Amino acid sequence: MTARISYDDVEVGTELPAAEFPVTRDTLVRYAGASGDFNPIHWNEKFAKEVGLPDVIAHGMFTMAEAVRVVTDWTGDPGAVVEYGVRFTKPVVVPNDEKGAVIEVTGKVAAKLDDEARTVRVDLVATSDGQKVLGMSRAVVRLA
Amino acid sequence: MALDQSFVGRTYPATAPYEVGREKIREFAEAIGDANPAYTDPAAARALGYPDVIAPPTFVFAVTFKAAGEVIQDPQLGLDYSRVVHGDQRFAYTRPVRAGDRLTVTSTIEKIKSMAGSDFLTIRGEVHDERGEHVVTAHTMLVARAAEEA
């Protein structure tokens, strides 16, 4: 376990490099296959609208997977993540066009938790179409 | 209808082992568009100190959620799955999941809350490897929305 960011080099407020993750219908079909989540609200527009959604929506777990990439891209070592949690507050609506949707993620160090374990808490903010799509999105990461 | 509080603490039998394959991890990493070599290149994973490729942090959800099906479909609990949405999700890792792991999941009903006709059910899935060592615990909160007034 060798995160490339040193605990001593970060402080509360340190910002992680932000990232944007595009999502199209194609992305959702691939994610359905890889994750085994074939709920039709993630690929069938007719079904999604029948159950009261504005359109097909992304898997919440897909959004969760993308958001933590800001952390794993920063540390280099995905195994440095010791805790990760989110609340699903709003769906990411994915229209059936070439553009689809974009998930924008920012993160910053919110607390230095343990000088010995060298763990920090990173708070993430994920938005799509100007709406916050995750709440309480936090990761605890062990740094070098 | 509110879920029965007496189910809190109920633990379901451990699942049969799920064997984590390199190609399944690769497929998942590609599906989330993540090119981190630790997911696909055993040498890169070894350089980070792991014996084989590791899985992205949320990969294990597919395994724990399948195990949670025992709870969700427990006829005694009586959850109306057609009204269920995923409320929140948390993972606490002892180590990352890796290729070659044979994972078993033990699901426990951690919490039941009822508010304004909606039920909030938290299921804890404890994941162990073939040596019985802890890998990760998943906490999954599901919301069964209140049935609409007829």
UniProtKB/TrEMBL annotation, chain A:
PANTHER family named among the record's database cross-references: (3R)-HYDROXYACYL-ACP DEHYDRATASE SUBUNIT HADB, 3-HYDROXYACYL-THIOESTER DEHYDRATASE HTDX-RELATED
Family as reported in the entry's similarity comment: Belongs to the enoyl-CoA hydratase/isomerase family.
Coiled coil: none
Gene Ontology terms describing biological process: fatty acid biosynthetic process
Domain MaoC-like: 15-114
Name listed for the protein in its UniProt record: Dehydratase
A GO term, aspect molecular function: fatty acid synthase activity
GO cellular component, one term: fatty acid synthase complex
Organism listed in the record: Streptomyces caatingaensis
Cited Pfam families: MaoC_dehydratas
CDD domains: SAV4209_like
Top-level taxon of origin: Bacteria
UniProtKB/TrEMBL annotation, chain B:
Annotated GO biological process: fatty acid biosynthetic process
UniProt domain FAS1-like dehydratase: residue ranges: 6-137
SUPFAM superfamilies in UniProt: Thioesterase/thiol ester dehydrase-isomerase (SSF54637)
Species annotation: Streptomyces caatingaensis
Taxonomy, superkingdom: Bacteria
InterPro entries registered for this protein in UniProt: FAS1-like_DH_region, HadA-like, HotDog_dom_sf, UPF0336/Enoyl-CoA_hydratase
Protein name: UPF0336 protein AC230_25590
Gene3D superfamilies named among the record's database cross-references: Hotdog Thioesterase
GO molecular function annotation: (3R)-hydroxyacyl-[acyl-carrier-protein] dehydratase activity
Family as reported in the entry's similarity comment: Belongs to the UPF0336 family.
